Amino acid sequence: MLQEPFRNALNTYNTSERQRQGGTKAAIMLSVTFQQAKGGAERMPVCVVVGAQWGDEGKGAMVDMLAQEADIVVRFQGGANAGHTVIYKGQPLALHLIPAGITHEHTVCVIGNGVVVDPKALLEEIEHLRSVGLTITPERLKISDRAHLTLPYHRILDAAREMAGSRLRLGTTRRGVGPTYVDKVDRVGVRVGDLRHPERLREKLQINWEQKRAFFNALPSDERPDFNAVVDEMLRYAELLQPYIEDTVTWLNERVGEGKRILLEGAQGTGLDVDFGTYPFVTSSNTTAGGACTGSGIPPTKITSVLGITKAYTTRVGEGPFPTELHGEEQVRLREKGREYGATTGRPRRCGWFDAVLVRFAVTVNGCTALALTKLDVLSGYPEVKLCVAYRWRGETLTTFPAEVGVLEEVEPVYETLPGWDEPLSNCRSWAQLPKNAQRFVERLQEVVGAPVATVSVGPEREAVLWLPEAPSLW
Ligand code: IMP
């Protein structure tokens, strides 16, 4: 690693250059200087990007922007439940399994061991990306041999649970993600590496099938999957995906050793983490920074920075407590202003004011070194804007995020109200151009969540990401 004084000098350079030139250009300049300074021999950093709320914070757009400076982008958890939207050739492009770095031809994209891969969805996504002009080759896309496979009937299991009764319903994306992780932990999963050995694949599928026999038998006969058809389908996928399969753990650690710049891209958000989120209304993986290590094989000692992504307000899809949720007209207004509809399912998102209790918790469990605040432009036009700084619960004031959903369902948000601004922000291209009240909102927000805001987004384009004057260095 660089010596501390040298690193500080570069950080100072980084900040002043960003101020002078603005945004990405300065960051590229920094990369050049960084490379020169280390004479090509020092180790380059690894940056983790995680959601600090309940997903849909705009991680895709941030990864897309940061990938301009990265050599490798790795997805480390989740599956086809994710929907990361990037702008490619002026059009929105929704990605579900493939990392958001794919639109930059110089990056290698990796689907890490912590991801659950639906081969059908992945092949469709590859086809779609090719149809819009992107190059997808085994040199550019690598899939971990340790990643688990979502099998054709995992979606049936997911839907069956959702329809089994309101007490079991979680509002999942029904992409079979939960049941795939269940099989992984139950040690009956089928892994991507198994696709390399067709003779053994059948046996692995047989074990997985046996474990669900009672469930299959309970289904009406016309809805029961056919085992031989499943084997044939998986053998077809095996042939098509074979060239992309890699021991990505070894491959990635070799690249870390060579000093490549690596971005670790999380899906969903901290509030949906299976350990730290609003259990049971969570997804089935670790969406937080620890998951970046276990889901990629890159050890914690190699992580340089953790960037938490958060909207300037809060949204959530699916069931589960949401203390700052707005209702009626107020909710509709925010949803329409922010165009808050799911990228994967099209479901309308629940909307509310910024919840600093949740984001403070996210800063803590992820160890966020910086935050990227997205969609600040959506708050233009409100006479007052609000930050929830604590919860009130049965006469007590809670400043930390409670573990029990029963408590979260009963809390009342304690708001700090700040003056709003009327001006639209979407044409602002630097921090200095933002109205004073918008700046004040951001400054207060970083105080109450306890982490510095590095960037503020005022639109979906890369140029709409504005760096703050004192932004910490990510690389
Ligand atoms: P699952 O991940 O499909 O099992 O769904 C579990 C919960 O996570 C549900 O509340 C989903 O709405 C939520 N969820 C899963 N993926 C995303 C995402 O990409 N954005 C936001 N919410 C998600």
In words, what does this structure look like?
- This protein is α/β, with parallel strands linked by helices.
- Helices cover 35% and strands 18% of the residues.
- It is built from 15 helices and 20 strands.
- It has helices at 4-21, 23-38, 59-66, 119-131, 154-163, 177-185, 198-210, 213-218, 227-241, 248-258, 289-294, 328-338, 356-366, 405-410, 436-449, and strands at residues 46-51, 72-75, 84-88, 91-95, 108-111, 116-117, 141-144, 148-149, 245-246, 262-265, 305-311, 314-316, 350-352, 354-355, 370-374, 384-393, 396-398, 412-419, 453-457, 465-467.
- A ten-stranded mixed beta sheet has the order 9-7-5-2-10-1-11-15-19-20, with helices on both faces. Strands 14, 16, 17 and 18 form a four-stranded mixed beta sheet that branches. The protein has a two-stranded antiparallel ribbon with strand order 3-4.
- Helix 1 (4-21) packs antiparallel against helix 2 (23-38), helix 5 crosses helix 6 (177-185) and helix 7 packs across helix 9 (227-241).
- The protein is globular, with a radius of gyration of 22 Å.
- The termini are close together.
- Mean pLDDT is 91; it is low at 1-41.
- Bound molecules: inosinic acid.
- Inosinic acid is lined by residues 55-56, 81-83, 170-173, 175, 177-178, 267-268, 272, 281, 283-284, 317-318.
